Amino acid sequence: MKLSVIIGTRNRAHAIAACLDSVAASLATATPLDAEIVVVDNGSQDATSAIVQQWASASPFPVRLLLEPKAGLSRAHNRALRTAQGELLAFTDDDCRLSKDYVDDLLRHDAADTESVLRGGRIELARRPDRFTVDDQNHPRPDTLEPPHELRTASTDHRTN
Fold this sequence. Notes:
It is globular, with a radius of gyration of 17 Å. It has 161 residues and is of the alpha/beta class. It has a single domain (2-123, 153-158), classed as Alpha-Beta Complex (Spore Coat Polysaccharide Biosynthesis Protein SpsA, Chain A). The strands form 2 sheets. Strands 3-2-1-4-8-5 form a 6-stranded mixed β-sheet, sandwiched between helices. A two-stranded antiparallel sheet has the order 6-7. It contains 4 helices and 8 strands.
């Protein structure tokens, strides 16, 4: 079975290499494995595509860089789905980091599944505590949010023919 790890990205030149590093590290612990990494640049105006290309040139895993000029994560995911070769699909975000055992856990759960499954992963904030102030209507005030955090998560899907 082939695994496709799919990442939609837009203007994340500062974050995409760390995401790809975590994907490669997780795939490496699960080798030998038939896997590919599919990155969809969703109209970036920065150096995101160039960084992905540079990273891919040294990657031990095949990397496909696709371009989707129309903004929207669903468009990026759909673009990836038309090209991905995996029977098992794992979606993660460009600001997320996979744990080293993520792919092993994914494959173990997939082997135990008896039918098609859509599975979500646990999200762990990289910094704790994650605090913000809530206003009178119970909405966080943007000026009190801490800087963006790295998240550890991924969604998975099993392709059926």
